[in-house]
Amino acid sequence: MNKKLMTLTTALTLGMALTSFAQTPGATLSKTNSQAGAYIGAGLGSGGPTTNYSDDIEYTIIDAFENMINGRIYGGYLWQTDNTLYGVEAGYYGTNSDTENTSASSFGPASTWKYSSSTADLLGVIKYQFNSRFNIFGKAGVAYLTNTTKKNGTQTDNFKSYVPELSIGAGYNFTKHFSTNIAYTEIFSQQTRRLSDGGEFQMSNASIVLLNLEYHFG
């Protein structure tokens, strides 16, 4: 994950949280201003796993696919106890793809490699609302990954798995119905496996930063 992007995300999250403490700390959130109930959201950002493929004599052919443009749509439901909201959320990351061309060498002819992935997730959510504007939140659950690798248009791998997912962030409510937040997510997708052509595929955890917009129906 790009270190500058991670640093910026951390700074923004901490800055929003510290600002919120200065805004009527300890005040109980009125149900009139609460965003409890059903909501939907969409986000756009950057991030993804680092992947590489090596042939059966350990020659690295591809080493790419980090920091892809990433997006997510999601929906959920929140319940409220005082200033704490908690609930469940389901989401889907759009299909990401990346292509890399390799030149002919003593290891083999020129090739075109295409990697694509998609992720669906189910998360528990807990959010602390400092006041009617600022909040911080955490999410944890499971992600369902689908990863496909193709060489010259022929599929060499189609891998599906369930892996843990964690997310933290901070948000701001424009109104009772509209809000925004920035979230840092880690999907624990690290794996190493052999493909049908004898090569070895490696993937790191996926680190993703998204800026989200939400609509609350409550």
Structure description:
The chain is built from one helix and twelve strands, in the order H-E-E-E-E-E-E-E-E-E-E-E-E. It has 218 residues and is mainly beta. The protein has one domain (3-18, 43-101, 110-216): Porin, CATH 2.40.160. The strands form two sheets. The chain has an eight-stranded antiparallel β-barrel. Strand 7 (134-151) and strand 8 (154-173) form a beta hairpin. The chain is elongated, with a radius of gyration of 20 Å. Mean pLDDT is 79; it is low at 17-25.
By CATH reckoning, the class would read Mainly Beta
Q: What is the spatial order of strands in the main beta sheet?
A: 1-4-5-6-7-8-9-12
Listing every helix as H and every strand as E from the N terminus to the C terminus, the arrangement reads HEEEEEEEEEEEE
Assigned CATH architecture: Beta Barrel
Q: Structural class, from helix and strand content?
A: mainly beta
Calculate the terminal CA-CA distance, rounded to whole Å.
36 Å
Q: Give the amount of beta strand, in percent.
A: over 45%
In the CATH hierarchy, the third-tier topology is known as Porin
Beta-strand segment tally:
12
Rounded radius of gyration (Å):
20 Å
Q: How many DSSP H or I helices?
A: 1
Shape: elongated
* Biggest sheet layout: 8 strands, antiparallel, barrel
- Relative helix content: under 10%
Mean pLDDT: 79
Catalogue the unreliable spans: 17-25
